[in-house]
Amino acid sequence: MTAPTIKVVDLHKRFGPLEVLRGVSFEVRRGVVVSMIGASGSGKSTLLRCINHLETPTAGDVLIDGESLCFRNGRDGERKPRSLSEINRMRRELGIVFQQFNLWPHMTVLANVVEAPLRVRGLPRKQAMDIANACLARVHLAEKALQYPARLSGGQQQRVAIARALAMEPKVMLFDEPTSSLDPELTEEVLGVMRELANDGTTMIVVTHEIGFARDVSDRVMFLHNGLIEEEGPPEALFGAPNSERLRQFISKHLR
Amino acid sequence: MGNWQRLVWDQRDALLAGLVVTIKVCAIAFVIAVLIGLLLCLVRMYVRPLRPAAILLIEFFRATPILVQLLWVNYVWPAVFGWPDSFFAAAWAALALQSSGYLAETFRGAIEGVAKGQREAGYSVGMSPVHVFWRIVLPQAALGSAPSIVNQFTVIVKSSTLVSVITVPDLMYQSQKIVNVWYEPIEILTATAGLYIALVFVVSAVGKAISDTLRRRYAISAV
Amino acid sequence: MSESLHQALDLSLFWEYRNVLLHGLAVNFYVFAASAIVALLVGLGAALARVNRLWPLRALGTLYVETFRNAPEYIMVVWVHFVLPLLLSYLLRSRLEFNPFASSVIGLGLVYSGYFAETFRAGIEAIPLAHVEAGRSLGMPERLIFRRIVLPQVVRRMLPESVNQFISLFKATTIVSLIAVPDLMYDVTMITQQEMRPLPLYTGAALTYFAVVLAGSSALRALSERWRAKIYA
């Protein structure tokens, strides 16, 4: 039995006196799409950011293909925290798409996508360009390659952000509320691309408010509340017959 | 107004020579100011043991008047450091120091102003902090600082009128020489004032046009 | 080099003349205070011209501001001191000479009025239209709206922002030494010619201005922070 692509083990995160994650554990196997839903402050974004180490967990561990992201085995056999350069190396296997897109405004769309394959992976120029163009085509934005982000709509910028993350050919794609900053008319183009990725077998962890997407596309849904996974299961079970009262209320509030 | 002919037009060679010197001094001072300002800023922000020294230098260059710096660099430095070896060098050195302090603070604000998300996007694709700094933060900080940089250039041009005090033959020096010869200051001083105002205006307008175009293209707001 | 460094840092000569030099520093402050008043008043006037309804006034205001904002302080002071009296002499048909103190105050005041005009204009344009409309709907005449609603807010908002310009103005007062106003730099230059020892004197002058400007600007900034907190609290 191979190791799961992502395994989160008893993750805790506290900010000063505030404990945001109180012991979250789950695993995601290859090709599986997991959605995380929950109210604001439930810890979903923090959990995602701990997975790619933008936040350092207070306790617990994250394992990628069986390899710990947070710790390594020292020469004396003791567990030591990983150095930043090692974490960076492992981060290449995780793609993340932010709520605020975070495209680099002083670079063209193509430059945004090609930067990491070219300069972080160190691929030869032709190969990097091919990958970048392929990713842009995959999000249906090949014709915008030489534009600057300022000229693109929110939905287009977010799709470029997806392409940028895909260009590193990561094992897992993480999505942190990818459509929350978008006008309603623009969310569908981004959700459409995410649906296509899911159909292609991409391993995805999606933090979202879009219940419809979670129900239609995910293999598994996790409902977070107060830093813990309150309920977890396939979408039909969670949405069709929710066990917790809180989840019931959440669904009725968010289902359009 | 025959006086204009005699005092200004006939002297145009001398005035032009002065203008050339002014432009040279300002150009050199500007480039050096940006470099020193950047250096001071980076040391202040990232080299912890040298931070107090950097802050001291930045505050010193910002707080002392340009005339004082000019005289100090011109008379005290050669004896203590052995350089500058010419009035021209003292001129651009003092002008550069003056602006470097302001630019250091401008750069610091611009660097700190680059949104955290920009850096995080870089880290998330595996870029090292140094890589993120050079390719993501610094270009955006430079674009955000553009209006302040242009402003410092105009400050340099305006302050350059004082280099005549240490006998650098700039435009101001040449026109004062003409006044001393002919004892009729009205036309020449008015013309000189007009020339300087026009020069600063052009620098400022061109700089603003360039920085506006750049920032509009990339949609980066000013610091 | 170390001998010269020692000389430069041996400020005993500077200390010897401290009475004269202190008096010179006071002159810098006098010039600063007088120019600041001129600059603020004229600057406010120019700002009002720039936001006026009548386009000739707006044009005149813009011309004024662009001229003086882009003028180097030194050439302006020199011009006011040497050219303006001659021009006025022709007009008034009598010989006129300007006291260098007056020339400095006028020259610096005019240049800095350009900067303050822009600051005031930004402040005026930043006042939300809603405030003005509230006054209008109460039937207040325009002049009263300006005096009681717009102007106090402009002054309160922009004065802290002008701290940097005040500091610049103070530093610019050293220029007056070049037209024989007996400020600190003038005294230093005179003493240097007498004593032939520039190192301690110029170093001492640099350190003095450093200390004064640093202390003054910290104090001004602290005051303006307190002011700002009161307004926006």
Summed up:
The complex is a heterotrimer of chains A (256), B (223) and C (233). Chain A is an alpha/beta fold and 256 residues long.
What are the defining features of this structure?
heterotrimer, A: 256 residues, alpha/beta, six-stranded mixed β-sheet, 26% strand, B: 223 residues, MetI-like fold, flat
Characterization of the model:
The complex is a heterotrimer of chains A (256), B (223) and C (233). Chain A has helices at residues 44-51, 84-91, 109-120, 125-138, 154-166, 184-199, 211-217, 235-240, 245-254; strands at residues 6-15, 18-28, 33-38, 59-64, 67-68, 71-73, 79-81, 94-97, 172-176, 203-207, 220-225, 228-233. By secondary structure, chain A is α/β, with parallel strands linked by helices. Chain A has a six-stranded mixed sheet, with helices on both faces. The longest helix of chain A is centred in the C-terminal third of the chain and has 16 residues, at 184-199. In chain A, 45% of the residues are buried. Chain B is mainly α and 223 residues long. Chain B has a single domain (2-218), classed as MetI-like fold. Chain B is flat. By secondary structure, chain C is an all-alpha fold. Chain C has one domain: MetI-like fold (Orthogonal Bundle), CATH 1.10.3720.10. The longest helix of chain C has 35 residues, at 198-232. The relative contact order of chain C is 0.15. The chains are: A alpha/beta (256), B mainly alpha (223), C mainly alpha (233). Chains A and B meet through helix 2, strand 8, helix 3 and helix 5 of A and helix 7, helix 8 and helix 10 of B.
